Amino acid sequence: MSNVCVFDHPLILHKLSILRDETTSVKEFRELVSEIAQLMCYEATRDLPLEEVDVKTPVAVAKCKRIAGKKLAIVPILRAGLGMVDGIMAMVPNAKVGHIGLYRDPVTVEPVKYYYKMPPDICERDIFVVDPMLATGGSASAAISFLKEDGAKHIKLLSIIAAPEGIERMQQDHPDVDIFVAALDEKLNDHCYIVPGLGDAGDRIFGTK
Ligand code: PRP
Ligand code: URA
């Protein structure tokens, strides 16, 4: 699993334990999703290219580094991915945001596309596709295929919890995409929910159940 990063940072693990808890309120759940995304962003941006700049301090000129070239695009998979956007934007405030609307058909569990809107220069940006749950991998794989059809080349996937099935699907369909997850869980259940997981991420973020 060379392109999969499973976080072991104590802050992420602590927050994830509260996130999973079925008694956690909608408000706290939403805050935790955002905070975990912010912490994951720190590691996922580690290889952004830098350029040297001279900065005049009140004392002298300092040789500094700034992020070079085009910056990031964050692409949440609606709905649940929206919960991760603010946390990442807090770290990368100039990022543009594209939206992909997908839902899993409850019977076939196949992704159904209902919305797609990207920044015009999406193919020149480093893209973070964000979705808290990577279950069968169908949604993430489809979203990334749509982006590649648009010319996107540099894509990373940030998910809070993944199932082994989702990782395998991603590695088959998109071996070029690095995957960052806060936890790799045991399996999927008969309804393709992640076990132990955290339930339905979208419903818990938006209080729709
Ligand atoms: C959830 C989740 C992912 C998808 C993961 O979304 O947020 O997008 O399921 O499942 P997969 O890996 O098997 O495709 P859902 O379809 O429930 O829609 P929602 O975000 O609108 O609740
Ligand atoms: N979508 C969710 O929100 N949770 C799961 O466990 C699987 C898919």
What does this structure look like?
This protein has 209 residues and is an alpha/beta fold. 31% of the residues lie in helices and 32% in strands. It contains six helices and 13 strands. The protein has helices spanning 10-20, 26-44, 85-91, 138-149, 164-173, 201-206, and strands at residues 4-6, 50-56, 61-67, 72-78, 96-97, 99-104, 111-117, 126-130, 133-134, 154-162, 178-184, 187-188, 194-195. Helix 5 links the parallel strand 10 (154-162) and strand 11 (178-184). The radius of gyration is 18 Å and the shape is globular. The two termini are 35 Å apart. The mean pLDDT is 95. Bound molecules: 1-O-pyrophosphono-5-O-phosphono-alpha-D-ribofuranose (PRP) and uracil (URA). The site of uracil (URA) has 9 residues, from helix 6. Uracil is lined by residues 80, 133, 135, 193-194, 197, 200-202.
Please supply descriptive tags for the structure shown above:
two-stranded antiparallel sheet; nine-stranded mixed beta sheet; single chain; binds uracil; Rossmann fold; 209 residues; binds 1-O-pyrophosphono-5-O-phosphono-alpha-D-ribofuranose
